[in-house]
Amino acid sequence: MITVYGIPNCDTVKKAITWLKENKIDFQFHDYKKQGITKTMLNNWSKQVSIDVLLNKKGTTWKACTPEEQADAAKKAGAIQLMTEKPSLIKRPVVEQNGTVLAVGFAADNYAAIFGK
Questions:
Q1: Full-model pTM
Q2: pLDDT tens per residue across span 2-33
Q3: What integer pLDDT is reported at residue 117 of this predicted model?
Q4: Backbone dihedral angles phi then psi of residue 105, each to the nearest 5 degrees
Q5: What is the tens place of the pLDDT at every residue in 53-65?
Q6: Nearest-10 Cα torsion for 80, 82, 87, 90
Q7: What is residue 34's three-state secondary structure?
Q8: Do 72 and 78 touch, CB atoms closer than 8 A?
Q9: Residue positions annotated with a catalytic role
Q10: Distances (CA, A) of 3 to 94, 98, 101, 103
Q11: Hey, is 116 helix, strand or coil?
């Protein structure tokens, strides 16, 4: 099963979900805010894609972090701890299937290549 991880009010997540529905791809949605995220899952993802890809430094949540938190995020363990505490820092969406990260973020061309559409 494909799982889309994100927050429902994120425009990028909405675009990804719309694309998946329009292309008749079954998925389940995991809401970080309601269901949380584990360090184990973030560690698994960080073995497949770099922390720089997973950690969203462009959003308001990052800008609201203290200088100490931002400095701690320079190391993998600190970044994972921070993303666990503040899931809005995770770039969205993360699309996963059977433990394998298929995509981070949304680009229609990339999704078409991944899903053979």
A1: 0.92
A2: 999 999 999 999 999 999 999 999 999 999 98
A3: 81
A4: 90, -170
A5: 999 999 999 999 9
A6: -60
A7: helix
A8: yes
A9: 10
A10: 8, 9, 10, 11
A11: coil
DSSP secondary structure, 7-28, as one string: -TT-HHHHHHHHHHHHTT--EE
Other C-beta atoms closer than 10 Å to the C-beta of 99 total: 10
Cis previous bond, 67, omega within 30:
no
Question: Which of 20, 8, 10 has its CA nearest to residue 102?
Answer: 20
pLDDT digits (tens, 9 = 90+) for 103-117: 999 999 999 999 988
Number of residues in the chain: 117
**pLDDT computed for residue 33 by the predictor:** 87
Kindly compute the dihedral angle of the four CA atoms of residues 38, 40, 43, 49, in this order, to the nearest 10 degrees: -70
Residue 87 and residue 7 in contact, taking contact as beta carbons nearer than 8 Å: yes
Residue for token digits 């991880």? Answer: 5
